[in-house]
Design a protein that fits this description.
It contains ten helices and five strands, in the order βαβαββαααααβααα. With 269 residues, the protein is an alpha/beta fold.
Length: 269
């Protein structure tokens, strides 16, 4: 059920806000900012590896531990939030997400995993090391492109989250057309679409709706820096590797311009 992206005077009609966190789209900063909720209750759903069924089970277990119903929750946030998970509640739902230019998102993903591969204290150190330094030497960004790492990440996450089949996992939808259509349709139904490029403005809009402080600090920033500016061949390789993410991002920008991502006019990035 789509609703006005705002609060109402009737508690039973206040929407549950659901934030779909896409990798390396400033989601950690957004979640930390929105977690300063005071009396507002929230659940972060990001530890259910790819499976919507497991995410649903984890949510039910979390609610049971807190002796709560989903109707008691104001915010549901994380990588594993999928379309339809709000059906456990009787309140209306307001879905939102943040996207990022595919080239800068790719570079951020590369830098992040490179950092984790070098940092033994990182919770994903072993995974990152095996992926980014399989022979003990950190892969260059060109080598990560050649290995087709981080391809169409935004499209894959949104498509899997929108597939009505709860057993569908990310990177398991092989038909590119269906993959794109599922992702674009999810964006079409969003109550708000934000962009990393206008994160301060967009987060302020969300915080105003939730009655939260609008100030935020960017977190989870990568420390690894590329030795030189990206040359044209690297940029072209990233764009080719993200042949679905690029039109999806442009589709989101068009929704923003047409004011279809929210019932209120917001500035174009």
């Amino acid at each position: 059920m789509r609703c006005d992206f705002g609060m109402t005077n009737n508690d039973s009609q206040k929407p549950i806000y659901l934030f779909v966190h896409l990798p390396k789209c400033a989601g950690t900063s957004i979640i930390k900012s929105l977690s300063r909720v005071g009396k507002r209750k929230y659940i972060i759903l990001s530890d259910s590896p790819e499976s919507k069924l497991q995410a649903l089970s984890d949510l039910q277990a979390e609610l049971k531990r807190g002796r709560q119903q989903l109707d008691d929750i104001d915010l549901l946030m994380g990588h594993d939030v999928y379309h339809g998970i709000h059906s456990l509640a009787q309140r209306p739902a307001a879905y939102f997400t943040f996207l990022r230019d595919p080239v800068t998102r790719y570079v951020s993903h590369y830098r992040y995993l490179s950092d984790c591969a070098k940092n033994r204290r990182s919770p994903i150190h072993e995974f990152a090391k095996n992926k980014m330094a399989p022979d003990g030497r950190l892969l260059s960004i060109q080598e990560s492109i050649d290995r087709q790492y981080f391809s169409n990440v935004m499209t894959n996450h949104l498509a899997a989250a929108n597939d009505p089949d709860l057993t569908t996992k990310r990177w398991k939808i092989e038909d590119p057309q269906r993959l794109y259509e599922l992702a674009a349709t999810f964006l079409d139904s969003m109550d708000f679409i934000g962009f990393v490029e206008t994160i301060s403005q967009d987060t302020e809009t969300i915080c105003q709706k939730l009655g939260l402080p609008s100030s935020m600090r960017l977190t989870n920033l990568s420390k690894t820096h590329l030795e030189t500016a990206l040359d044209e061949s690297v940029i072209a390789g990233i764009k080719q590797l993200n042949d679905l993410d690029q039109p999806l991002y442009e589709h989101a920008l068009l929704l923003r311009k047409q004011n279809k991502s929210s019932d209120r006019a917001i500035a174009e990035p």
